Sequence to fold (1420 residues):
Amino acid sequence: MMNQEARAGLLTDPISLQLGTENLCGCLVRLLSKDPEWLSAKVKFFLPNMDLGSGDQSPDPTQRVIQQLSKLHTQGQSTWQEFIHCVCMELDVPLELEVPLLSIWGHGDGFPRQLDIGEESQPDSQLHPGLKRPHQSCGSSPCPKQFKKQEQELAKRYLQLLRTSAQQRYADRTPRPGQPLAFPQVYIPPILQWSRASAPFDAQEGAVRGDPKAEDGTDVNIRDLFNTKANRGPRVTVLLGKSGMGKTTLAHRLCQKWADGQLDRFQALFLFEFRQLNVITGFLTLPQLLFDLYLRPEAGPEAVFEYLQENANGTLLIFDGLDEVFHPCSSKETAGPEDPASALTLFSRLCRGTLLPGCWVMATSRPGKLPACLPTEVATVHMWGFDGPRVEEYVSRFFSDQPSQEAALAELRADRRLWSMCALPALCRVACLCLYHLLPGSSPGQSAALLPTMTQNYVQMVLTLSPQGFLPAESLLGLGEVALRGLETGKVIFSAGDIPPPVMAFGAALGLMTSFCVCTGPGHQETGYAFTHLSLQEFFAALHLMASPQVDKDTLSQHVTLTSRWVQRSKARLGLTDHLPTFLAGLASCACRPFLSLLARQDEAWVGTKQAAVVQALRKLATRRLTGPKVVELCHCVGETQVPELAGFTAQSLPRQMPFHNFLLTYADLAALTNILGHRDAPIHLDFEGCPLEPRCPEALAGCGQVENLSFKSRKCGDAFAEALSRCLPTMGSLKKLGLAGSKITAQGISHLVQALPLCPQLEEISFRDNQLKDWEVLSIVEVLPCLPRLRKLDLSLSKFSVSTLLSLTNVAVTCPTVRMLQVRKADLIFLLSPPTETATELQGDPDLWGNANQRKEAQRRSLALRLQKCQLGVRDVEVLLAQLREGPHLDEVDLSGNQLEDEGCQLMAEAAPQLHIARKLDLSSNGLSLAGVCRVLSAVSMCRTLAELHVSLLHKTVVLKFAPEPEEQEVIQKRAAFPGSLTFQMPSDPLPCAPRIRLTHCALQAQHLEHLCKALGGSCCLCHLDLSGNALGDKGAALLAQLLPGLGALQSLNLSENDLSLDAVFCLTQCFSTLPWLLHLDFSSESQRVILRGDGRDRDLLPAGSLPEFQAGAQFSGFGQRRISRSFCLRECQLEPLSLSRLCETLEKCPGPLEVKLSCKVLSDQSLETLLHHLPRLPELSLLQLTQMELSPRSPLLLADIFSLCPRVQKVDLRSLHHATLHFRSSEEQEGGCCGRFTGCGLSQEHVEPLCWLLSKCEDLSQLDLSANLLGDAGLRCLLECLPQVPISGSLDLSHNGISQESVLCLVETLPSCPRIREASVNLGSKQSFWVHFSRQEEARKTLRLSECSFGPEHVPRLATGLSQALRLTELTLTQCFLGLEQLTILLGLLKWPAGLLTLSKTQKASRQPPWHFPPRPH
Fold:
């Protein structure tokens, strides 16, 4: 304790007043005077907001130490305690001095309250003086002219002040010797890649790359970041990169470059960090943000702000950490642009141009969903970290001496996993730091073996920075507790009160924490502390979870989660725990168990229990169905654990199809995936679509033998990506399908791929579609085809190439023995190939080809299909193409549709068709063929032996030639069909006919074209089918064609539909029945304008389904076995007037028979029907007449009944419902026989009975008469029964369904005596409603009467008995369910006077049948 005199001396001496004890102060001053650089570094760490220039410092070193200590003591108790702990921890302090320092000043009780000056003494010169009061608003109204020059001078002074302040801030970024991390601040420019439409005009390949071999201090292309296409409005650039890529470092680097005068396009540059802006809770204006939070002008803030507005295009504002914003802003804003708002709202206004329009804005963020406040025209730049040359350059600069550089690089190159981790700049620095301490005294490879994972790099870094032989467990756990608490509350900036002084001193001593000034309100600022990197905070949080006894296994497992990198719409910002699960997984490795045991001061069994909990949590996650981002994160975690069993389980749990869509992927991500796939047995398909990919990330897949299909589809893939892909492809031995679509590769990238593809002979499918490939690129890829023996498909669609390149492609298709098809359409460019082994496999199943080597060779002959559609081919191009095809293989198909061949080109192709051996089709559609060209094409193909069909339609621009197999090929097909085990045994065994079908439809052919056309067709070889439908021949053309048809030979069909033909034309064509032996069927439909002439009837495809009623057409045989061919004439939907029918019949009189005529129309008048019927006797060859789908009059049954007498050849008349009538005729060779008349459903009533019977009585032999389903009723039936003796019926009479009752039954019974030829009659008045009468040709001695369900009543019995008594020859009577009871039956029998002989009576009711009664004759 001090005496009274010493205490009094302290009160009078200012220095002693601040430090507390004169002797202790003197010792401290003498100690610190020995290391002034260390003291200056610590003052700068604890007082980042103060200007430590030499302006107010004493030249005396001791006095300077006293002044610096005074400033530290002025900051308060917490800062002073943390400083004392740093002194005792980092400097060589004697024990007799360390004890009083810690006992008096290292605790809260030792800080004298009466000396607490607090915040009264603030330095005069500050960079961040705090928020401005509202009444100090900086307006933007124009200054008067007399003050303009003065205000410009104020603005110029402020701009110089900005630059000077930045120069001082970045003057010396190297840690001082007193700090443990005494290494040079190495900076290597990372890889930057523009996103889609945001690339500058002069950026090359979409990548902005600093030159890794340039001297430090130069970035040759860094200006391209601010050279976007936006000439007006907001110029906003967002730099996206994962944690540790160096976004914040690049932001400060830009500020430093500007301070050094390298970004001369900007007069002013402001750098803000959102993690600091989050601390501000109040609203700000833009002048307050610029001047109160960054740097205040010495005078005239209004004039300075006005100058910035007028020169906004020279102002750059950088906002670091956009993903760390606490509160999101809306995309729609209602407040005015000048109103105070949050920092994020001010950022939004700057981006949208409502504040400081024309300025440049740059923001950094982790990948994810960007805030809605960003404009849509924002330029996006991806940061990819380091590639191989950059890693080497970084290591070379980190290590100062040559031997250390070579040793470090050797360690990295020998360990692929450590090399891949160094792609992350932050992790590269950690690895170099660890190697710096591990390399001395270690053998080659030993150092890298201690750094297998990211987590173990951090562990080794902590061990490296710790005092020799001592692990500060308490301080490490203290840092871990602070880190975890910050992550859970979303806090990355800590105040002095958040961190215990010993923990703060430990973090500052090891360089794990940094300090800076934070503005918290108007005029208020304080020192803030943060971990040097967010990943470091996550690592210490993981340490706390794993080593703290207060954290149980359940709590630990809750932190092992997988967060998707797709940010949900409801989330305001990205989380702060990107790497926390990864660090937990890494700490679960067995290699970390000793370290955790020392840290937790527990045995390894206790640590193993916690590690097992983490592994089990990861195992559960591996069983779930995860999205692409979570799969990648899981692979990172599983790889960190170094547990082979877990890696194998995870690899086997992945699905066969693994899609990765629309999220950013780095080299490290694919390296982690490849590491896990190495434990998989089954193949896997990887599909990357819409993912921003690091240019070199394909290299991570090198040697991955599990990938069978690999597909990339992203506009962000360029030449660098293609080069990296080409390096890994030869190492992927199981890869069968490769896709690189929708990229931006050029000739440079294609050249790399072309060199790699021949080294991948196992590839079966390659897709380079939608890459906008040019001529050279396309040809370079196609030239590789002979080097890929197993390739089946090559897709180069959506490329841009010339016609000359196309002809080169066809030459490749012709000469390459494996090409089966080349398809080129407007956007498609596809090669289909068939490996040689495929043909051999097919032959194994064909027995016919086993024994004959020539046949086997023939079957192996290649067949090529060419589809060159819409390729702008002309006549000269066709000549080149034909020269290629004549020397090539047989062609299966040639499709040249949509080109510019015109008449000459089409003629050339048609003439060459027989030489090209086209097996299926030649398509020349949409080539500008004219009507004159049609005849030229016809003449060209007239002698083609294999032509099966020619279809030309000028209206639809169709020109298609189809071919049949060659005769020798037909024999092979027949043999295959005959072999029972062949796959084609169901094919018809008849030889395939080569019957050419010529279809000239919708070609505007007229009558004057027919002679020329028929001349061209006359030379055709065996023309069988001719289709001229859809033209304009008219009646004149039809008449002329009828004369020309004999010159065309024996056709099988002729289609003249839709030629505007009338009945007159049909009559002319009908005459062809007698002039054309092949013509067997003529079908004409007036409404649909269908006119078809057919031969033997096999080609039914010309007729629509169901268009003709079914009828027996074909051959008839005479008595001597001579075959007579039947012909048919069908006329539908026509107006059949008497005159037309007369002319038709006159025409048909000359037709050889047998002849079938079918007519249909809506209404057929009685006069027309009479005309038709009267002409029938003049048609001796007529065998059938059908009148269908027409409406006949009620008188038509009488007209048809008279036909029996008019035309004795009529065998049968069938009239149904007055809509369908059919007349069958006997041939001249047939014997005369009975006739049949059916008039069903014709509405016949009583008035029609007498005339009908009179007409039928003229018939000599009427075997059957069917009058069922009419309207006769009881009266009509009575009349008919009365007339029945006049009608010569020899068979049966059907009167069913005529609405009769018991009256008609009684009339029938009464009629029996007057009709001796009736042999049987049966009536059913029940559900059947049947009424049949059967006759014999002569008088019948025995008669049978069957009555069913007649429901006789008592009143009917006497009359029934009377009628039965008069039936002299009635021998059998059957009554079924006639409701005659015993009483009525007794009465009936009593009244009955049966004739001579026996009478059998049977009575049957519902379920019982009584035996018949036989009655002897009763004497009269």
Remarks:
- The first helix runs from residue 4 to 12.
- The chain has a mean pLDDT of 81.
